[in-house]
Amino acid sequence: MSWPWLVSLQHQGHHYCGGALIGRQWVLTAAHCNFSTVTDYLVIGRSYLGSIRDGDLIPVKAVYTHPSFTQLPPSDDLSLLHLEKPVELGEFVSTICLPGKDDKINLVSKCLTAGWGITEPHQDEFPKTVQQAKVPLISSISCRSYWGLEIKNTNICGGASGSSSCMGDSGGPLQCGEGGQYKLIGIVSWGSSNCHPAAPTVFTRISAYTDWITSITGGEAGSLREQPGGTVITSGKGNT
Questions:
Q1: Exposed end of the chain (fewer CB within 10 Å): N or C?
Q2: For the segment 86-141, what is each residue's pLDDT rounded down to a tens digit?
Q3: What is the separation, in whole angstroms, between the first and last Cα of the chain?
Q4: Which SUPFAM superfamilies does the UniProt entry name for this protein (predicted)?
């Protein structure tokens, strides 16, 4: 699997948001996805969601939502999901590294996003096979000029180049290749309601939240290490 840290959030057997595996027992997603430990489960290590069985569903024992989260427009839009048991890492399941607190965003970085969100504005159901798209980063100034003042320093913007994140992609990772490995630079937060390809997608900037993530996970997430094989690749309940 090209994205062994990619997670599908599932409600009653259906995908509705994405997430990223940042530790053997931790998934990072968007708070507005509103994950429920009672009705929802995770699927990890699968690129095709058409043959999911009960044994593939991973339960979550606790949800930690950022205390400053607000809904409209989403701000501080992060939740940490604490899995009931650590997952086994291997060829199809691995964690993604987190950026450092002081990491600067390089607008020429090679970044991609992936997920099972709809690919057309009026699509009735999500695709079963994971989709991916290159995401050129854009400056906060350019993003503010498009969206207005809702863009904060805790956001990062990308896209507006013929492809965009759409409904069902919320919570999914913005991953950028650097030094032979990927880092989780952002989590899909919001964007155009009709998935307009010229509209920038707004991501939650992970480097702004490393202290909060560490305080919740106790340092059990996001450690730097080589990805398997050293390979670098050059929402239902929650809407993007």
A1: N
A2: 999 999 999 999 999 988 888 888 899 888 876 655 556 666 778 888 899 999 99
A3: 24
A4: Trypsin-like serine proteases
Query: What is the three-class DSSP state of 228?
Result: helix
Q: In sequence order, what are the residues at sequence separation of 6 or more whose Cβ sits closer than 8 angstroms to the Cβ of residue 226? A: 180, 181
Residue 171 CA to residue 89 CA, distance in Å, equals 21
- Catalytic positions, please? 32, 77, 170
Distances in Å between the Cα of 83 and the Cα atoms of 35, 111, 126, 127, 226 are 12, 27, 25, 25, 23
Torsion of CA 193, 125, 41, 200, to 10 degrees: -30
What's the pTM value of the predicted model, to 2 decimals?
0.88
Contact present, 14 and 50 (Cβ < 8 Å): no
> In this structure, are residues 90 and 44 in contact, taking their beta carbons and an 8 Å threshold?
no
Q: Which two tokens stand for residue 221?
A: 């997430």
Counted residue by residue, the chain has a size of: 240
d(CA 190, CA 203): 7
Considering only CA atoms, give the Rg of the chain: 16
Express each pLDDT in 44-100 by its tens digit: 988 878 888 888 999 999 999 999 999 988 999 999 999 999 999 999 999 999 999
- In terms of Cβ atoms closer than 10 Å to its own Cβ (0-12, 13-18, 19+), residue 222 is buried
